[in-house]
Amino acid sequence: MKLNNQILLGNLVLSAVVFVVSGIGMYYLVFSTVYDELDNHLLQHKTDIMNQVQSDPASLNAIRELGGLGSYEWVEIERIDGQIDETENSYASIDTTRYEYQDTPEAYRRLSTQISVNDTTYSLKIYEEVAAWENISMTILLSVVAGLLIWILLLYLLNQVAFERILKPFYNTVDTLETISKPSDFDEKFPGSKTHEINVLNQALNIMMQQISSTFEEQKKFIQNASHELLTPLSIIRQKAEKILSNSDQLDEDTVKAASDIQHTAVRLSRLSNSLLLISRVENRQFNLDEDVRISSVMSEVLDEMKDFIDMKNIHVSTNETSDFVVRGNKELIQSAVYNIMQNAVKFTPENSGIKIEIGGESGQKELKIIDEGPGISAELRDSLFDRFKKSNGHSNKLGQNNGNGLGLSIVKSICKLHQFEYSVKNRKGSGTEVTIRF
After folding, report:
1. Buried b (16+ CB within 10 A) or exposed e, 327-339
2. CATH architecture group of domain 288-438
3. Does residue 424 register a pLDDT over 60?
4. pLDDT digits (tens, 9 = 90+) for 181-211
5. What is the dotted CATH code of the domain comprising 196-280?
6. Domain 3-149 is of which CATH architecture?
C-alpha cells in the first residue's frame, strides 16, 4: 500500500473514532441540555402559576379545573395538610396518560412542588410532554452529526489533495529509480525539493548513484583491460604448448600429457577472456545496431559452423520456418547469441537424439525457439540461469568434460538487453529445454 494511502487510511480511522466518540458525547450533551431547559421551563410555569394565584387566588380553582397550560402541558393541584416546603422541587421522567381514553402512556417530565394560597398548602404537579423536546433534541443532534460527518469527509478529500502534493516529489524520486535499468542511467540526477526530508533523500541518492557509477565504470574498465591483457600471454602459452607438442615423439608420455593440459587450459582461458571482453563491449554499447538481420540466414550460418560438433554426436536437427523475417540490430552479436544457445543445446543433448528449431510464431510473431532433448534445467538454477558464471553441474559433453565457462547465456542476456529482445527458458514436458528469443 502506498504511503499516501496509508496516511489517509490512518486519518480516516482516526476520524471515524473521533466521529463515534463525538457522536456519543454530543448525544448526552444535547439531551442533557434539552432536559435542563425543560426543567427550567417547568420551573417557569411554577413561577407563573404562583404569581397568578397570589394576585388572584380565585384563579386557582380555574387552573385546577382546566388542568391544562397548553397542548403539551398540564397540571394537577391538590390540597394537603401541613407546612409548605418552598425548597422542594423534584423532577422526574414518567410514562403516564393525560386522558382516560388514551390506551398507551406517553413520556412526560414532571415537576412536583408545593404552593401556599391564603394559608392553604397545595401540592402542585406540572407535566410537560417530552416527545416535542426529544424531536427538537434529535433534530439538533442529527444536524450536528451530519455537519461533523460532512466536515470529516471534506477533511479527508482536502488531506488527499494535500498529501498528493506533499508526497509528489517522493513518488517522482521512486519513479526515477524504477526507470534505472542500465549503466547509462546512473548519471540520472534527482532534483532538489522544498521538503527537507525529500531533499535529504535525493541528495543521498545522488551521492549513492555517483558511487555506483564510479564503481561500475572501474569494474568495466578492469574487466575489459584484464581480458584484453590476458589474451597476449595466453596466446604465447598456447604457442609454446603447441611447439612442445609438435615434438611429442621426442618426449615422454607425462610431458606430452602436461603440455596438452596446458594447451587446453590456455584455450579455455582465452575463450573466457574473449567472452568477458565481448560482454564488456556490449554493456558499453560499442556496437552499431543499424543492420537488417535475417534470422533464418543467421541460423543457417550457425548450423554450418557447428556441423562437425553436431555430426560428432549424431544429432538430428530439424528446422520449422513459419515466417522469414528481418530484425534491426547487429548481425555479429545476434549470431553470437544464437550460437551460444545452440552450443548449449548440442552440448546437453544426448547422442543419437534431436534438436528442433522453430523460426516464426503464431499470428506472425517474430521469435526463435531452440528445443533440445537434454536433461532440462535444475530448479536451483532456473532463476539464475542467465547470470554470469552460472552453469549446471553434472552435465557433460561427449568427452566427459564440462568445458563451459558459465558465460554463454550471460552473453545472450547482454545481447538481448542491448537489442531490447525478450528471452526466456523453460523445461519441456518429459525432457528437454526450450529457449526462446522474441525479436
Report:
1. bebbeebbbbbbb
2. 2-Layer Sandwich (3.30)
3. yes
4. 666 666 667 777 777 888 888 888 888 888 8
5. 1.10.287
6. 2-Layer Sandwich (3.30)
